[in-house]
Amino acid sequence: MSDKNITKRIITEDSADEFDNASSFGSASTTLTNGQTSRSNTPTMFGTTGNTRAGAGGQGSKKTKKKKRLSKMKSTSGKYTMTCMAREDHGQPIFGCQFNNRLKPGEPKILATVGSNRVTIYECSSDGKLKVLQVFADPDTEETFYCCTWTEDGKGKSLLAAAGARGIIRIFSPAEAACVKHFLGHGNAVNDLIIHPSDHNLLLSASKDHSLRLWNILTEYCVAIFGGVEGHRDEVLAADIKITGSHIVSCGMDHSLKVWKLNKPELQKTINLSYTYNQRATRPFPTVKENFPEFSTRDIHRNYVDCTKWHGDFVFSKSCEHNIVCWKAGKTFQTWDEVNFSTTETTIILRLDITDCDIWFMRFSMDIKQNVLALGNVKGKCFVYDLSSTDPNQISHNVLTNQKCNAAIRQTAFSRDGNTLVFVCDDATIWRWDVTNNDTLPEDTS
Q: pTM to 2 decimals?
């Protein structure tokens, strides 16, 4: 990719005034329907080709078993209003979106999207619009970006990492309007990228090659590789790093969730070494090979697990089975350090049911305070859950709908203050919803 390869784009944008039937409403319990769902250019469970993200189900002819459930969630008044929709001109699915929540309160809300061979940066302006700031295009038209995440350099300037089908991790500098670094190492597509919560130079990548890699993007060393003997047996679809930086959780096509210990003495020593290692040394950097997770389970889901997030000591994970599960290893009262590697017991805390969510690579997000969770479905509806309740049975949710939004929602993202929610779809559209009236959340000043 040329360092100055910035492409002008035609983005069609519509305001909320043109969408009379946008609504936010409480959702009652619903009965899940049977049958598989596939999307345009997304093959079903009977096979995958090229750089596409697959449709419903697991491998071979194994079907997702759907159970009829009664939701215990109560209805709630709507507090979101659709303010803007934009459509990117490549016409391909937009697989990822992320707000730059490292910016200070009061600074503009900056959003990045990835789809086709494009990485696009927007400003969510105060007047409810989406303003295109920069566009980066990979010269290889066969590239498809799947994921992105924000970080910063040593001077506090924003950096954007993006990766996809080719397995190359690109680091973009909006300030320099260029791709400033790239990382090679994965043997196949990269499905997810995560920045360490306390060290903005450490980047975790999850790949189709069955492994995760931890990179120091400042010194350009691969610090650790997670996989191998007891690692994932198929594509790693998503991962997350605990807010304390102590553990990694990963999930994938092998239906499993694995927890890796990041604060091991050997790993911490290697991370520290990655900042001081002599680049002129005759020996390569001693990358740690981590073959054994601290915990592994296949008891939570029975199909592809395509998204997972930490929530304190609990883990939220999603499969293409119409629900999100909150769980932890061992007993409820046990910390992760007290959970033995041989433990197979898991405790399910909560299930969040969602209709028409049976294709994989549809990812949820949480706001920065982890009080709200949003996930879309294949029919263009976005389910927004209020996690602030201390009683799991009292968790409420809204459903955001618009008559013109009817494509699969691939990912959602919240702004730093939690007042703006954006989701991206298979039809190359971006939808912006904002908190309205007296429901505006207090801005985070931390």
A: 0.84
